[in-house]
């Protein structure tokens, strides 16, 4: 099959949320596209080959994980979940879609990324929501636990909102649009963007294929070197769009000799282009989870609901403003969910994560080997900046008050862990027990050529090289204050438009 693809106009590396978007948009515009995916491709939405867990939007699957790990804020090991399958993390996430806040994108534009302001991106968010078949829950679909959460939030003084698809949305509690069907089927990026062009003759998908490196001649990308079915092969390329994600894209750049000179020299990787920012600026949204036993009343209410409706684990999001939010309308998410736990008396666990949406802390990614099968060294950088702790502590205090609300009293049982009362001890508890919101970004960030740590220009083109672009969450200068699946699709939409317009 590979021999038939040597004349593709565009090679897209990575079939995740952004990669599917880029490949689908370029193929629909008449480009001949080869999409290279490290994981399996189970085909279109109608294929019977899709594993049930990847289609089940009721809960989060754990299969098809890349196996990335890194240290938390106190050095504890964290699993850094990323999905290795066509559709990428859109095939295993919670299907909640929100756009974030306009001011964050306007800040991208002000920092030297024209075309990334909120007004320019608004129609692309609308397009992505349409492609994902995003819909709002109807009232009768909101299960009893989440109805109680909404009641508790209003008792805390927050308004009920349904503005998660609006860039001007503010603080409040509600249910964001979801890319899942009424039957609870997850609708991933491959269904949204690849299915319309799978039979067009413009797209080929090469799955179960690792990219070793990209080779260059006179500063222009020439070929992608892959490992397919145990065989090393070289695919000539006219244009390469790297969409391997916040961890995968810098890994491939580094293996290609693009990155910090000293780091590449340590690994004896020949230098192609010295770009100090590759692998830097890594950040994710940390979370601290409050966990409780579910009561018998909760178990009974959920069983009655599930008798004739789809029971979703996760539905509500609270957009909360701490005293440290500055001019922004919110800086925290509280996104409760329930999960079955047969070890507990009534079979249910209630989890209330508090997520910091705009962390100041930064980490990094470095290679440990030039072998694409070797795990990278990921330093998450969580809580490296102590200013990330006060808003988290505020969020935990507020959420404890939420949990004590009469609206939740019948459903929330004993705490599964007791939080320290002293602030210094609570701070240490957060460092040792935090998790993450599954939203890593920033390792190939956009910025002008005058910024020595910018990896790509505003069109996604890698600084100082031709024929190579990056389009995924790695190019985010800063994480927007929301979930990142939809912004990843918008990155794909935006950079595909740049490519098709000739602006690159």
3D architecture notes:
The structure is a single chain. By secondary structure, the protein is of the alpha+beta class. The protein has one domain (about 10-50, about 70-500): FAD/NAD(P)-binding domain, CATH 3.50.50.60. It contains 12 helices and 22 strands. It is globular and about 70 Å long. Its cofactor is FAD. This is Oxygen-dependent choline dehydrogenase. It comes from Pseudomonas fluorescens. Its EC number is 1.1.99.1.
Give keywords.
FAD/NAD(P)-binding domain; 12 helices; alpha+beta; five-stranded parallel beta sheet; 22 strands; 504 residues
Task: Outline the fold blueprint.
Layout: E1 10-13, H1 17-28, E2 33-36, H2 52-55, E3 69-71, E4 77-79, H3 102-110, H4 118-131, H5 144-155, E5 172-175, H6 189-194, E6 203-206, E7 209-217, E8 220-228, E9 231-236, E10 240-242, H7 245-255, E11 258-259, H8 261-266, E12 273-274, E13 286-294, H9 296-306, E14 316-320, E15 332-334, E16 337-340, E17 348-356, E18 364-366, E19 377-379, H10 389-403, E20 412-415, H11 423-433, E21 435-436, E22 468-470, H12 485-501
Parallel strand pairs: 1-2, 1-10, 2-6, 10-22, 11-12
Antiparallel strand pairs: 3-4, 5-14, 7-8, 8-9, 13-17, 13-20, 13-21, 14-15, 15-17, 16-17, 18-19
Binding site for substrate: 437
Cofactor: FAD
Family: Belongs to the GMC oxidoreductase family.
